[in-house]
Amino acid sequence: MHKEHERFADSLLAGDATGAWEQIARCHDAGVNALFIYQELITRAMHWIGDLWEQGLITVADEHLATSICDVVLTRYDLSLAPQPMAAAPQPKALFFCLEQEQHYMGLKIVASLFAQHGWEVRFLGPDLPLEYALTHTSKWKPDVVGLSFAMSHHIPSLHTYLDALTKLRHRPQLLVGGRLVNASALHDTPLDNVLLFDNLQHVHAWLSEEGNVTRWTGQRGQQKHA
Fold it and tell me: Which CATH number does the domain housing residue 48 bear?
């Protein structure tokens, strides 16, 4: 019998958005929380699909189909969980995007969804964003947090270029880096100023529950405005 995440992956690979959504809806109706759905169902399914591709058991076209269906279902789930806006309540802001030529965006979109569920105002700019446009948008919107991810080891030099440029922004956002290769990369050996590394959603959730608490970040923004 297939595990839950494998059944979900089967629906994605079959292009069955209805079946994938119904599985998420059943979990939600059974009281399963968003973190579990993001981590144990969606993320594990996408990792399993990636493993199938690495083993040559599916094609790039299959992987792209699965990603597009997952994107639709994740967006629908996020909309169903959208919190009611609080009148005149300021929210800390988080901006997420992938490096130029980085097409693997689903993991970062899930992180963006988790931030939204914790009460942050979120913008997700998607894959393949050139540095100049990333800097322009970040400087204009002034998010408290900027999150990036990478899935290919040959993007590490580019990642360092992005991080170096972002750390020089005047409003100094907190930088977050995630991805399956975080622990395998040399990033831990070359600490960067104001950069936090995350290799799974549990760690992101823990940070959001403590250091990333909305009330604390709202207070920090107020102090910065009056500094």
Answer: 1.10.1240.10
